[in-house]
Amino acid sequence: MRDIGKILPIEGYRVTFKGSLPVDYTTSLTHLYQPLIGVRAISLYQTLINELAFQKGSAAQTHHTLMNYMNLPLDQIYRSRIKLEGIGLLKTFEQKTDENGTYTYELLPPFAPAEFFADDMLAQLLYHHIGESKFQVLKEHFHSYGFDKGTNITASFNEVFQTFQPDTNHLPDSEAPGSGQLTEDSYPSIDFTWMEQTLQQQMIPVKKVLTAVNKRLISQMMNLYGLAEFEVEKAVLWALTEENTLSVSEFKEACHDLFQSKHNEPSIRLTEKNVNSEQNTNEAHEPDYKPTTKEEQLILKLENISPRQLLEDLSSGGQASGQDLKMIREVMTTQGLPSPVMNVLIHYVLLQSDMKLSKAYMETIASHWSRANLQTARDAMAFAKNQKAQYQERKNNPKNPRKPVSKEVVPDWFKERKKKKAETTQNSPNTAQRNEEFAALLREFSNGKQ
């Protein structure tokens, strides 16, 4: 029901196609993509593919036509479209006019089976959706090359040809040579500097482990399983072989084990996000979001930078010391704090300790925050404020409550005895007077001896 009204039946659409379809694209759709996104999304893709033949010029058809073709309500067609976009089979462009909007659906070719299994993220998702036995059947079917091809000795382009070095400054970004290849700087989602320092400290060759292919794999597994940087770092160390190479299968298993221990779930599956509920939660991460207060600006910054970057910013651009980074890494690993929460902790400790990082102080607070299960910078800042306010209140309003005096049950015979003793005391000479008389006797005795 939440998707009703996202698009209207009267609004138009056109279909374009980018690339070329692999020969066995239908097998890829039905046996590899369909378990992930469902039959309706695949049906929409195939319907739009066939629509290409019926398009006449630039005339747009209405979505009401698409509803009739698929015999589905428009909200279900919209959800199917979103799934195609998410899995990488469709791009959608919207053109608003005064009357009605028009959409351009740019279809993208699916992976051929061999390419699909070469994509670690898609292959891992399919494994969890259809199970190990079915997965192995499909994989063996699409990789049934019955002979060993030997070592790849194919000459590369640079080994055969000599070319000039083009001036890439005059090339548009989309047309830059090699833009589709893996490069060392193609993974902005992960700060690999931390991992490089960890490997260097353990005398492990960084370039041998963090190759472009491995960085792509690490990035995919991190996003797939929702792991923090320190967890991915731990998985990499677990999966290193004796030759200091990364075992892909062991790394995937390590990531999955970490996912299970975190969420207590047997497996992962593609599930649809609730767009409406996610909108408020993630508004701070949207590109057009502009914080209005200094606190909002600080929260946005702490959510999106690494602890290393935070230390360097607070050091006026200076390089963070290896000792501080090691201390922070140990606290994060031990207490399991996400990077945004760790950033708030670093900021808080520096403010409280005259810009010095104390490991003991940091561990004490981190342990408390870990038990509070803080996940975002906003949560951590609110929690820190609340704790500081409570501390100030206790400091300004000290309370020393008196211990309650317990009433003892006194028996009647004790009361009678006490009463008689009081009467006897009243009849006897005053105690002070008796003491004075006794002192006078002592003086007389002393004078007599002299």
TrEMBL record:
Residues 273-282, 424-433 have a biased composition (Polar residues). Residues 269-293, 387-450 are annotated as: Disordered. Transmembrane segments: none annotated. The keyword NADP does not apply. GO terms for molecular function: helicase activity. InterPro entries: DnaB/C_C, WHD_DnaB. It comes from the Bacteria. Belongs to the DnaB/DnaD family. This is Replicative DNA helicase loader DnaB.
